[in-house]
Amino acid sequence: MLGAIILRPIHSLIHRMNSIQEKGSLQTIDEERRRRDELQQLIDGFNAMIERLRVQFEKQDQFVSDASHELRTPLTIIDGYASMLKRWGKTKPDMLDEAIEAITSESTRMKQLAEQLLLLVKDEEHLTVNKADINVVTVVQHSVLAMEVATERDVRFTSSDELLIANADEQMLQQLTYILLDNAFKYSEDHVDVRVVKAEKNVELTVTDYGNGITPSEQTKIFDRFYRIEKSRSRAGGGSGLGLAIASKLVSLHNGTIGVDSIPREQTTFTVTLPMKG
């Protein structure tokens, strides 16, 4: 009897290890806590190891999802310019220069993005932000042009000023603009309006699409990771549910805000505010 009691946690450990090997799913040992003896320490150590493995596997899955979502946009732009080169590259030298510059720029951005994702999967607070004083108008305008060429969509850009300076990471601001435009394209076949304006002590970026809109209940969830709006809003079922969550993180790293205002069946506007320099 005493021997069975002593051996029970060992049998539980063996059974759980065999189960993990057979099913491939991580499981802890749910054993009634004993006094602090060697067997209890063994069980606690095993459970702690399983929890750490769970966290690592979740980070791995998250990394794969983030990477596939975020790398798709620059790849689309590169593919768009490559198609332009095939059609008109030999007859239009000015287009050749534009395409080469865009492909080089997006290749560099992909490399930097991959590095950021590698840091993100380790720990989000270790994400490097290379801030400098940049003209938000110029960065957003160039991003809009690149997306227009790549997707052949109508994007109408306006700004209140030619120069609106913010202390920000240029690559991240570019990435943020791509995410918001990509999101707008998914949910509307109409044109998209992009505005950069001065709003008191902030620079305000708005992206408006004219699709089916977002219900109030969904507006509270759209910045959650992996949340996807119902398919009735989307022309093609939507994305992976990562874009807006990453956009929110990018804005947070710049001490800014991001929000949404939507009129069902009419339009949706995403608004980003960033502290303006000076």
Structure characteristics:
alpha+beta; 278 residues; 2 domains; 16% strand; 7 strands; five-stranded mixed beta sheet; 54% helix; two-stranded antiparallel ribbon; Heat Shock Protein 90
Briefly, what is this?
By secondary structure, the protein is α+β, with helices and mostly antiparallel strands.
Report on the structure:
54% of the residues lie in helices and 16% in strands. By secondary structure, the protein is of the alpha+beta class. The chain has two domains: 71-126, no CATH class; 133-275, Histidine kinase-like ATPase, C-terminal domain (Heat Shock Protein 90, 2-Layer Sandwich). A five-stranded mixed beta sheet has the order 2-4-5-7-6. A two-stranded antiparallel ribbon has the order 1-3. A hairpin with a 2-residue loop joins strand 4 and strand 5. Helix 1 runs parallel beside helix 2 and helix 2 (38-88) runs antiparallel to helix 3 (93-122). The protein is elongated, with a radius of gyration of 25 Å. The N and C termini lie far apart (78 Å). The relative contact order is 0.10.
